[in-house]
Automatic annotation (TrEMBL):
This is Bifunctional NAD(P)H-hydrate repair enzyme. It comes from Pelomonas caseinilytica. Binds 1 potassium ion per subunit. The keyword Isomerase applies. Catalyzes the epimerization of the S- and R-forms of NAD(P)HX, a damaged form of NAD(P)H that is a result of enzymatic or heat-dependent hydration. This is a prerequisite for the S-specific NAD(P)H-hydrate dehydratase to allow the repair of both epimers of NAD(P)HX. Bifunctional enzyme that catalyzes the epimerization of the S- and R-forms of NAD(P)HX and the dehydration of the S-form of NAD(P)HX at the expense of ADP, which is converted to AMP. This allows the repair of both epimers of NAD(P)HX, a damaged form of NAD(P)H that is a result of enzymatic or heat-dependent hydration.
Amino acid sequence: MRALLPTTATLPLFDVAASRRIEARALVHSPDLMERAGLAVAKLALATRRGDGPVWVACGPGNNGGDGRVAARRLAEAGVPVHIGNEAPTHPSLAIDALLGLGLNRAPTAAMLATFAALQACGAPILAVDLPSGLLADTGQPAGARAVRADHTLTLLTLKPGLFTGEGRTHCGRIWFDDLGIAPDEPATADLLGPSPAPARSPTSHKGSHGQVVVVGGAPGMQGAARLAARAALASGAGRVYAELLGVADDEPADPGRPELMRGRATVLPQAVGVVGCGAGARIADALPHLLKALPRLVIDADALNAIAAEPALHGLLRARPVGSTVLTPHPLEAARLLGRDTAALQADRLGAARELADRLACTVVLKGSGSVIASPRERPALCASGGPALATAGSGDVLAGWLGGLWAQQPDASAHAIACAGVDTHARAGEVPGVLRAGDLVERLAGHA
Ligand SMILES: NC(=O)C1=CN([C@@H]2O[C@H](COP(=O)(O)OP(=O)(O)OC[C@H]3O[C@@H](n4cnc5c(N)ncnc54)[C@H](O)[C@@H]3O)[C@@H](O)[C@H]2O)[C@@H](O)CC1
Ligand SMILES: Nc1ncnc2c1ncn2[C@@H]1O[C@H](COP(=O)(O)OP(=O)(O)O)[C@@H](O)[C@H]1O
C-alpha cells in the first residue's frame, strides 16, 4: 500500500469493465482477494484514525461492504473498538465508508444519502474503501445528488479514472493504492501521467537548434494572454519566440517586460510552431484558414477554438491536417461548444468527451480542468492528476498553450500526443502550490523546470 500522488511514474488506469475482468481472472488463483482488501483497509485505518474512539464501519450490500466487514474483523482482532452500522457511534476515531464501490449503478436512494450525510457529520476522518461511495469510477461524477467526500481513499486492485478527473479529486482526499498483489494482465484503459524530463540541450546547440514559436493572438485589450503564451514558450527553451499581436502597432515591442521576445508574422515563419488563439478575439477566424493550411505544427487555444466551433468549414481544414500535427487545448466550455453540447453533459464524462472530440476533429485534445485528459485518435488516452486550484486563475491556460508550443519547437519529431502529455503534466506540477499562482509566476516556475 502506498500514497499515490504526486506520481513518480506513468501508471495504468482501468475502467470498471476492465477492473472486473482483472478481478475475475485474479480470483481464479487468488480467492482470498477480499481478505487482502480488508486487511489493507484495516492497516490504513490504524494509521489514520484520530484518537481512541471506535472505528465506525458503514457497510453496503455488495463486496465493497464485504471489504469493510473484513476490515472491521481485523481491527477488532487488533483490539480496536469497532461499530458496524448505518449510524455513527459516539465520538468515532474514524469512519470507514464501505457502502458502494465499483458496483454503483444508479443514483443513491434516500436511505443511502442519509448514511452519506451521517458519515459527513460524524466528526471523524473518513476513509473510503476503493472509491468514495456514490462516485462513478469511470467518470469521477456522482451518480446522484451527492457522493461521500472522504479524507482518504484506499483504492484496491486497480486505479480507476474517476479518482483523478471530474469531481474525483474533491471526493477522494488523499489517495492510497494497494494492488492486492495482483499484476494487471490486460492493457490499461488510460495512462495516469508521471513526470516528464525537460528536452535535452546539447552542449554545442545554438538558438537555431531549439526551434521557433509564433504566438498569434493579443487583440486590443487582450495582449496579456498572447504575451503569457510567448513568455511560456521562451521559458520552455524554444530558440526564438515571435508574437503576432493583432492589437498592437507593428513598431511596438512584443513585450516590454520581456525583451527576448520578437514581433513576427506566421505567414513569414513557415517552420515555426503556431500557438494560436490566446486573447485573439473574433478576428482570428479570418486568419485561421491560412494558419491551418500553412503551419506544420499548431497548438490551438481559446478564441481560435471558439471560431472553429462556430464555423463548420474550419472542421474540414482541421481534419485535413497531417496526423499528429495539431493540439487543441479547450477548457470544458470550449470543448462543449466544439461538441455542440452543454458543459455539464461534457463534464459528466470527460474521458469520453475528449476521445470523441479527438476522433471528430482528428487532433490531439487536451481537455483542461481538474484531471486534464489528453486524447488523440488511435492513442491510449492519458489523465493528469497533477496540479490543483492554484491554477484556477486567469492566464494559466495561455501559459499551457505557449509551453506546449515551446516544447514542440524543440522536439519536432515528437507526436502531438507525446508533447501534450509531457507539457500538461509539467505545467500542472509547476502549479502545485498553496493558494493562488499568478500566471506570470507560473511561467517563472516553469522556467525553473526547463
Ligand atoms: N470480490 C473481491 O474479491 C474483491 C472485491 N473488491 C471490492 O468489491 C467492490 C465491488 O463489489 P460489488 O460488485 O459487489 O459492488 P458494490 O459493493 O460496490 O455495490 C454493489 C451493490 O450495491 C447496490 N447498489 C448499487 N448502486 C446503488 C445505489 N445507488 N444505492 C444503493 N445500492 C446500490 C447493488 O445493487 C449491489 O447490491 C469493489 O469496489 C471493492 O471494494 C475489491 O476489493 C477487489 C477484490
Ligand atoms: N482545480 C484545478 N486543478 C487542476 N488544474 C486546474 C484547476 N483549475 C485550473 N486548472 C488548470 O489551469 C489551466 C486553466 O486554463 P484556462 O481555463 O484556459 O484558463 P485561462 O483561459 O484563463 O488561461 C488549465 O491548464 C487547467 O487544467
